[in-house]
C-alpha cells in the first residue's frame, strides 16, 4: 500500500452458493469475484473494463460495502472495512458513494428531486428543511440543473438529467471516493460526453477519486488515469490509460481493443479476435481462465493460474506469455 492510496483491495473474493432448493445444501459456488487486487490513489480515476458477467458490478458493491465479501481485504483511507457491520460502516458512508448504471431505476419515483438529492444527509447530520433545500439547489446547479427542478419527480426528466441528479446525490456528503458503475451506458452518445465532462470537472473541483466501471474500453481510455481489465472474476492487466491500446499485453485485452469498431472499412481486421463465450462462474477452467478462448494458449496455461506481475514499469499482467520481451501482436 502506498501512502497516497485512498483505496487498497487485496485478494477480494465474493462467492454465492448454488442451491437446488431454498433449504438444501449448496451444490456449488458462483465465483463472481475470485481474488481481485488493486489500488486507487487520492484524486485518481481507475477504469475497470470487461465483458458482461465478469464481476464488475459485484466488485463495485463490495468496495462500498453494499455487499459483504467472502474473503480478502478492503482498506479505505488506511482502515480495514471488509469485516465491518452496517453500524460500524455508517460513519464511513459519507466518504464513499456510488453512481448506479440505470438512471431510471436508481431514483425513487415517489420522491421529489430535493428529497432524493439530500437523502444521504438524513443519517449524517441534522439540517433544517430549509437548509436541505438550499443545499439541494446548490448541488443541482453544480450538475447543470436549476432550482426550478427541486419539486419535480424523476419521471419528468430525461435519462441524462436523471443521471445528473444521481451524481448530485453522490456529491451531497462530499465523498472522497465515487464508484461509478456503468454511469453512461444507458445514455445516448451525445449525453455520455456531457456526463463524462461533468464528472471530470467535478473531480478537478472536489478532488474526487473514481473507480469507473464500464464495458467500453474507449470510454475509460478517455476518462481514466489507469485501466484495469477484469476477466472471470479476476484482474488480468493494469496499466496507464495513456497509450493503453497500443501497449496492452494480455491476449484478452488485445481482443477487447481490437473489437472496437473502426471508421475506415479499408482497415484490415485485427489479428486477435474475441471468440467463444465467457466461462461458467460455477465451473471455471483450471489454470488461466482465458485459455479455452485464447489463440496463444500453450503448455502452462491449462495447468497453472498466472499471477499478476509487473511486466513493465507500472504495468501489471497475468499471462504466461509475458516475459522480458512481452507479447508480440499476432504471434505467441
Which secondary structure elements does this structure contain, and how are they paired or packed?
Layout: E1 5-19, E2 26-41, E3 45-49, H1 56-63, E4 71-76, E5 79-80, H2 86-89, E6 96-99, H3 113-118, H4 129-142, H5 159-171, E7 177-181, H6 189-206, E8 209-214, H7 217-223, E9 226-231, E10 234-240, H8 244-247, H9 251-258, H10 300-303, E11 309-312, E12 315-317
Parallel strand pairs: 3-8, 3-9, 6-7, 7-8
Antiparallel strand pairs: 1-2, 1-4, 4-5, 9-10, 10-12, 11-12
Helix pairs in contact: 4-5, 5-6
Characterize the structure shown.
The structure is a single chain. The chain has about 325 residues and is an alpha/beta fold. About 25% of the residues lie in helices and about 25% in strands. The protein has 10 helices and 12 strands. The protein has helices at about 55-65, 85-90, 115-120, 130-140, 160-170, 190-205, 215-225, 245, 250-260, 300-305; strands spanning about 5-20, 25-40, 45-50, 70-75, 80, 95-100, 175-180, 210-215, 225-230, 235-240, 310, 315. An 8-stranded mixed β-sheet has the order 6-7-8-3-9-10-12-11, sandwiched between helices. Strand 11 (about 310) and strand 12 (about 315) form a beta hairpin. The protein is globular. The model is unreliable at about 325-330 (pLDDT under 50).
